[in-house]
Amino acid sequence: ALFMENARKSSIVSRANSIGSTSASSVPNTDDEDSDYHQEPYKESYKDRRRRAHTQAEQKRRDAIKKGYDDLQAIVPTCEQQDFSIGSQKLSKAIVLQKTIDYIQFLHKEKKKQEEEVSTLRKDVMALKIMKVNYEQIVKAHQDNPNEGKNQVSDEVKFNVFQGIMDSLFQSFNASISVTSFQELSACVFSWIEEHCKPQTLRDVVIGVLHQVKSQLY
């Protein structure tokens, strides 16, 4: 009986060892895989890389926009002023943009105003240069011929010329104007100007008066 019991136990142990070896050979070695997993680096997938690149690009875009608004708020003077309507709150992007637009429009108006002032000053400078040249020519002519002033006409002669021109114009004016009513007077004045104040007509009048005064002097 003792011999039979030892033989049965030996058979059971032998079968157990056989099953264990078979099971061990069929099951993967998890210890080796764990060691390999910790040794090899994690390989990022294409989708993860693309998501990470998109996140970084979006963050850069937001940082650039924020920096742009901060720069505008620092450059535009009206953004630095206290806005009592919003208190001490930070200016919104819409307010910063509107204040920037208003400031740019103000600068455009100031630029146009300054350009007009510069244009006016340039015209004044040009006129002064012309006057300077004329005065220099007059001074030079007087220095070259100091006796020329003695032959100038007197104020009386100038008045006679003016009087002769006005007398001639008044004769045509008196003959053409009717004073029956103010409307008729106005119409006659305009018609007289168009008829008797033409450049050629005035030139003929002045020439006639000058000849008359010349004959009286000489």
UniProtKB/TrEMBL annotation:
<dbReference type="InterPro" id="IPR011598">
    <property type="entry name" value="bHLH_dom"/>
</dbReference>
<keyword id="KW-0175">Coiled coil</keyword>
<comment type="subunit">
    <text>Efficient DNA binding requires dimerization with another bHLH protein. Binds DNA as a heterodimer with MAD1, MAD4, MNT, WBSCR14 and MLXIP. Can also bind DNA as a homodimer.</text>
</comment>
<dbReference type="GO" id="GO:0005654">
    <property type="term" value="C:nucleoplasm"/>
</dbReference>
<comment type="function">
    <text>Transcription regulator. Forms a sequence-specific DNA-binding protein complex with MAD1, MAD4, MNT, WBSCR14 and MLXIP which recognizes the core sequence 5'-CACGTG-3'. The TCFL4-MAD1, TCFL4-MAD4, TCFL4-WBSCR14 complexes are transcriptional repressors. Plays a role in transcriptional activation of glycolytic target genes. Involved in glucose-responsive gene regulation.</text>
</comment>
<dbReference type="GO" id="GO:0000981">
    <property type="term" value="F:DNA-binding transcription factor activity, RNA polymerase II-specific"/>
</dbReference>
<keyword id="KW-0963">Cytoplasm</keyword>
<feature type="domain" description="BHLH">
    <location>
        <begin position="49"/>
        <end position="107"/>
    </location>
</feature>
<protein>
    <recommendedName>
        <fullName>Max-like protein X</fullName>
    </recommendedName>
</protein>
<dbReference type="GO" id="GO:0000978">
    <property type="term" value="F:RNA polymerase II cis-regulatory region sequence-specific DNA binding"/>
</dbReference>
<feature type="compositionally biased region" description="Basic and acidic residues">
    <location>
        <begin position="36"/>
        <end position="47"/>
    </location>
</feature>
<keyword id="KW-0597">Phosphoprotein</keyword>
<dbReference type="Pfam" id="PF00010">
    <property type="entry name" value="HLH"/>
</dbReference>
<dbReference type="GO" id="GO:0046983">
    <property type="term" value="F:protein dimerization activity"/>
</dbReference>
<keyword id="KW-0678">Repressor</keyword>
<keyword id="KW-0539">Nucleus</keyword>
<feature type="compositionally biased region" description="Polar residues">
    <location>
        <begin position="9"/>
        <end position="29"/>
    </location>
</feature>
<dbReference type="InterPro" id="IPR036638">
    <property type="entry name" value="HLH_DNA-bd_sf"/>
</dbReference>
<keyword id="KW-0804">Transcription</keyword>
<dbReference type="GO" id="GO:0045944">
    <property type="term" value="P:positive regulation of transcription by RNA polymerase II"/>
</dbReference>
<dbReference type="GO" id="GO:0005737">
    <property type="term" value="C:cytoplasm"/>
</dbReference>
<feature type="region of interest" description="Disordered">
    <location>
        <begin position="1"/>
        <end position="64"/>
    </location>
</feature>
<feature type="coiled-coil region">
    <location>
        <begin position="104"/>
        <end position="131"/>
    </location>
</feature>
<keyword id="KW-0238">DNA-binding</keyword>
<keyword id="KW-0010">Activator</keyword>
<keyword id="KW-0805">Transcription regulation</keyword>
<feature type="compositionally biased region" description="Basic and acidic residues">
    <location>
        <begin position="55"/>
        <end position="64"/>
    </location>
</feature>
<dbReference type="InterPro" id="IPR052207">
    <property type="entry name" value="Max-like/E-box_TFs"/>
</dbReference>
<dbReference type="GO" id="GO:0061629">
    <property type="term" value="F:RNA polymerase II-specific DNA-binding transcription factor binding"/>
</dbReference>
